[in-house]
Design a protein that fits this description.
The protein is an alpha/beta fold and about 325 residues long. It has a single domain, classed as Metallo-beta-lactamase, Chain A. The protein contains 5 helices and 16 strands. Strands 1-2-3-4-5-6-7 form a 7-stranded mixed β-sheet, covered by helices on one side. Strands 8-9-10-11-13-14 form a 6-stranded mixed β-sheet.
Length: about 325
């Protein structure tokens, strides 16, 4: 399923001016559309399965993609941002196999469509990651050998070098897509190479798995809290329209998450969070200092340096849900 918002007249902000240059500055942040029903799986295996990738155009120059739970239960989100000189794809999903998960073909089609409206003699693609966990980098292999394409390694040193960090993670660095200048911070705590990316054009703050409507796994509490402090302070100084992570794990029932490994999630929480919720996560992390374990909140669940028994309980619930689903299918 693909959804597109109405496209404004090209003579306005965000449209193509003289020489084909798009103005990504004067009207930012633009009002795009998050009026979308995200794919969330099917109640029975093989019943009503979705396309492997859902594509949603927030605006003409911004695409949000979601991998279907029919392909992989993680169902991560990915983000494609177009600038005048290059596009940035953040994350490549949980599946390497192009037959099951045709990410490269989908991105090629989106770039081709964009270039049909905004012709360029040469156009680059940068493939980078919100962080280096396997469900966000598996599709990297599909971009091997693609012309005019740079794939940034998942490793922390490669991330720091590519984006030009000199004092990780305290730097605020910029990455220019060609008039669309992103601001990037290091956000370790969940993953050593995690970044958060602010896009002034949309007002998006893209937070990877550091901030999601779901289970926030904190491997290093000190680093996580410092990252959250930086993120909250940054968001207070910018017009942030939406805080967007890479998963939905909470339901619309406050404090209730779907089991780990769920392949059917009816009644999901919205993907987008607010800056107020961002601050709530920071405050929860601050209150958890010195206390390992699990704490539930309406829109997220904080796993602070989880203990073995915390993870065993999570896996036991996942197994029970899987067995119940198997019984229903039989």
């Amino acid at each position: 399923m693909e959804t597109r918002p109405m496209v404004a007249d090209d003579t306005g902000a965000g449209g193509t001016g003289a020489g084909g240059t798009i103005d990504f500055g004067s009207a930012a942040p633009v009002a795009g559309s998050l009026d979308v029903s995200w794919i969330h799986g099917a109640p029975r295996s093989g019943a009503g399965q979705d396309r492997p990738i859902q594509v949603h155009h927030y605006d003409e120059h911004t695409v949000i993609l979601r991998q279907s739970k029919s392909v992989h239960y993680e169902a991560p989100f990915m983000f494609l941002l177009f600038g005048n000189e290059r596009a940035l794809l953040l994350d490549t999903g949980a599946t390497a196999d192009a037959a099951a998960f045709p990410l490269r073909a989908t991105i090629d089609g989106l770039v081709e469509d964009w270039l049909a409206s905004h012709p360029r003699e040469r156009y680059e693609l940068v493939v980078a990651h919100t962080h280096g966990h396997g469900d966000h980098v598996a599709g990297d292999v599909q971009f091997t050998g693609r012309p005019d394409t740079t794939v940034v390694s998942r490793e922390a040193d490669a991330v720091r070098e590519f984006f030009g960090f000199t004092s990780w993670p305290d730097d605020l660095v910029t990455f220019d897509l060609g008039g669309r200048v992103l601001e990037i911070q290091g956000s370790p705590g969940h993953h050593r190479a995690a970044i958060s990316t602010y896009d002034p054009w949309t007002g998006f703050l893209l937070t990877g798995d550091t901030v999601i409507p779901g289970r926030l796994y904190v491997d290093n509490h000190e680093e996580f809290l410092a990252s959250m402090d930086r993120m909250v302070d940054f968001a207070a100084s910018r017009p942030v329209t939406h805080v967007l992570g890479c998963h939905i794990e909470m339901s619309r029932v406050p404090g209730r998450d779907f089991p780990l490994g769920a392949t059917y999630q009816p009644g999901e929480h919205p993907l987008q969070l607010t800056t107020a919720q961002l601050t709530q996560i920071r405050d929860a992390a601050r209150a958890a200092a010195g206390h390992r374990g699990v704490r539930k909140f309406d829109d997220f669940i904080l796993y602070t340096e989880p203990r073995t028994r915390d993870l065993l309980k999570l896996m036991a619930r996942a197994l029970a849900a899987k067995l119940r689903a198997r019984v229903r299918r039989s």
